[in-house]
Amino acid sequence: MKIFNLRKVMGVFFALSLTLACDSLDEINENPNGVSPSEANPNLLMPSVMRPAATSTLDLGIGDIAGTVQHTQKDGWFTGHNQFEWGLRDWTGWYNMLRTNNFLQRRSEELGMEFHRGVSLTMKSYIFGMITDLWGDAPYNTALRGDQDGLENEFPAYDNQEDIYPGIIQDLQSAAQIFATGNSEGVIPEYDLYFGGNATMWHKFTNSLILRFAMRVSEKLPDLAQQSIEQVYNSGVYLTGADEDVSIDFIGAASGDSWPTATDFDAGSQFRRFKPCNTLLDRLVDYEDPRLGVWVRPVHCQWVEDLSLDVAYDPYIRENGEILEGRVSFLDVEYVERIAAGNKYTRHYNPEILGRELDTREYVGLPQMAQGPSDHNLNPTGGQQLENQHVSQLADVYRERTGGILQARVISASEVHFILAEASQRGWSTGDAEANYNNAIRYSLETWGVDDDFEAYIERPEVAYDGSLQRIIEQKWIASWTTATESWFDWRRTGYPELEIGEAAPEPQIAVRFTYGNNEINFNAQQVGRAVDRLEVSVGESRGRNNQWAKPWLLQGTGKPW
Prior knowledge:
Elements: H1 6-21, H2 42-45, H3 47-62, H4 64-68, E1 72-74, H5 79-83, E2 88-89, H6 92-111, H7 114-135, E3 138-139, H8 146-149, E4 158-159, H9 161-180, H10 199-216, H11 222-235, E5 246-248, H12 269-273, E6 274-276, H13 278-286, H14 292-295, E7 302-305, E8 318-319, E9 322-323, H15 332-340, E10 345-349, H16 351-354, E11 408-411, H17 413-425, H18 433-447, H19 454-458, H20 469-479, H21 484-494, E12 515-516, H22 518-523, H23 525-533
Parallel strand pairs: 2-12, 7-10
Antiparallel strand pairs: 1-6, 3-4, 5-11, 8-9, 8-10
């Protein structure tokens, strides 16, 4: 897909804003630098929906949800990431996107701009889907109507998930019909951050979202799910290659428009908090997964088992085998420079004297929900220094502001084909399950630039398709790196991959939802109360019904994930 430079977009935005706002500079009582709602161009509204939808998804996908599905763990400021201690969580940002999108839809309808109306229906479905996936029941049918219906909708009713998901799928089907015409009249390509005004790609995107949300309700509304998925498959219109992944890049000019862990903006502190989780890392190592080196950096200083050592462990590190007297560690940036210059750093230990084993691998992660994650693997610089030389950092690319694989991904061709593989495995008419599964893995490897290793990888016994749902979902979980929300939603629905809690887990199960936030509790209490009453509470009762372990309708009666 084509990705556009937002500097150019914003320049055009400013010029068009002035043009639209001031047909005549001698008009009085009008802001010459503003746009009247009655004159707003729908093109100008699209980036204000598309970009925050993608970046907000990324923030979850590399943030707390990546910790929840055990892609990563943090060893500083870690309780939210590792132990889902999220507290009350507002959805204001998502509904702000919906307000802008609602304006986009209304202006598109007023001007008869069908392409833009299709965009608005698609983005409406995507954002509402994220809201109900994350929280449960939510304002849907009566949301965003306060300015139309007056005070009667000041406190919008919460709709049941049972009604929201079919509504989302129906809107996506309507959008697909619009894009099927191929008409993109009136679009300014630079403002379409996803596809540059390409109606065919929007059609593929919209149908791919139908696959996502239909599979989401497969346990609760199986007939709707099967019918919707088979219809999309039979159309042949969905994402069919890694070059069609729906994503945007970053400008890299400032913190707000750069990759979230860019080290230029916080001296690298944010970057260094993130470590791979052993739950994922162990599989990547065991399967000789070619994506390992793309995502993770080898440890700066590797432990070496040495039974000849007459102490528990070296007091100092070794550079190319020679002990550096007085040197316990280097700073992260120093290690990076020295290793790049060809030096290798090790530290020896004797397990018989130490009384336990250390992780001597080249790639080392953190265990899930550890009590003291900064001390793992005998870190000599524990606490908040975040300089654990004996645990891997993420790959160096995640220090950068922009470029290459640093993209905010909305949905991928890999995800789409894992969905088709699961549908086939269920016996639905979506082609051959193994072919879909293999394509899903192939597209993921292409996304991360290691597709030359596909044949060797797919033939590994731990990877080759074995006919099971567990195998499909495990590989989908691996492929969802930086888009961890989809893994969380799959895990809730299927129980795969099998994730275990750690010693510092606050409850005996992994969380399944966000709690309703203070804004709703304070200003829409009656509706929140009704929604909370519809939750199924069996874990964390002492926290009240509005807790992270309360099951919404989507999970009730399924026996999943626990």
